[in-house]
Design a protein that fits this description.
Layout (H helix, E strand, L loop, with lengths): L1 E4 L2 H11 L5 E7 L2 E7 L5 E8 L5 E3 L3 E6 H8 L7 E7 L2 E7 L3 E7 L17 E6 H14 L2 E7 L2 E7 L3 E6 L4 E4 L3 E6 H11 L4 E6 L5 E6 L4 E6 L8
Antiparallel strand pairs: 1-5, 1-7, 2-3, 2-6, 3-4, 4-18, 7-8, 8-9, 10-14, 10-16, 11-12, 11-15, 12-13, 16-17, 17-18
């Protein structure tokens, strides 16, 4: 396996985001591209990253599965710059990482055995789909973090509402003018601890797609020309704050 990326900064950012949910992952490489699918230790959230073959300037692979410690991997990736290119090459039980800029630098990362069961993204049906500006989603979630530890995603009469209630409250309301809403009336609550991590991924794309239903898992879809990033979050089913 030998692949080359001309924009390692974006990979570094997304690996940093994933490392807040999981510490070890299987990186799968095949003729279609590179992917990671993992569930956090609490079994509350899942993440899937896809880097298609077209994202690489060099892509010479067979079928590979690489066990990686993300803390170590992200530290190496952060040594790259916006002017660097990145070469990943499997050599025996090592991942050789080369950073090419004014000089060529070499790192070797030991591959590890991942003991946890391999996970796949579940097939879930959603009654509501909302496509909105990522900056609006980020601001709304950050508003909710100020007042509570969970927030509700609500569809009511064609409007999308993000609301948090504790001793204090915060609410953002979107009509069809501010977001693309294809949805049925529903309400589901989600942990802001996890949403705070997800919205870091939303910064990678101008738009974010939210899929949910009544007391149902949330799926967050983030895509740009370089990658696809998906999160799934279990709902909080409990009494009102």
């Amino acid at each position: 396996m030998l692949v080359r990326l001309e924009n390692p900064g974006l990979l570094s950012r997304v690996i940093d985001i994933i490392s807040e949910l999981v510490t070890e992952v299987r990186i799968k490489v095949n003729n279609e591209g590179l992917s990671i699918t993992a569930m956090d230790p609490a079994n509350v959230s899942m993440v899937r990253l896809i880097l298609p073959k077209s994202s690489f300037s060099v892509f010479e692979v067979g079928e590979e599965t690489l066990g990686i410690n993300l803390d170590n991997f992200k530290k190496i990736l952060k040594r790259s710059s916006s002017m660097s290119s990145l070469v990943l090459e499997k050599k025996d039980n090592l991942l050789n990482i080369q950073i090419h800029d004014r000089i060529k630098r070499n790192f070797n990362l030991s591959l590890i055995e991942i003991e946890s069961e391999e996970k796949n993204m579940p097939e879930i049906e959603f009654s509501s789909v909302v496509r909105l500006n990522s900056s609006d989603l980020i601001a709304s979630v950050e508003d909710c973090i100020v007042v509570a530890d969970a927030c509700s995603f609500i569809i009511k009469d064609g409007k999308f509402i993000i609301e948090a209630k504790g001793l204090n409250s915060a609410m953002s309301e979107f009509s069809g003018d501010e977001a693309e809403i294809s949805a049925e009336n529903c309400k589901s609550r989600y942990s802001l601890e996890y949403l705070q991590k997800f919205i870091k991924g939303a910064k990678l794309s101008e738009k974010t797609i939210l899929k949910f239903a009544n007391d149902h898992p949330l799926r967050v879809d983030i895509r740009n020309d370089f990658l696809e990033l998906y999160f799934i979050l279990a709902p909080r089913v409990e009494t009102e704050d």
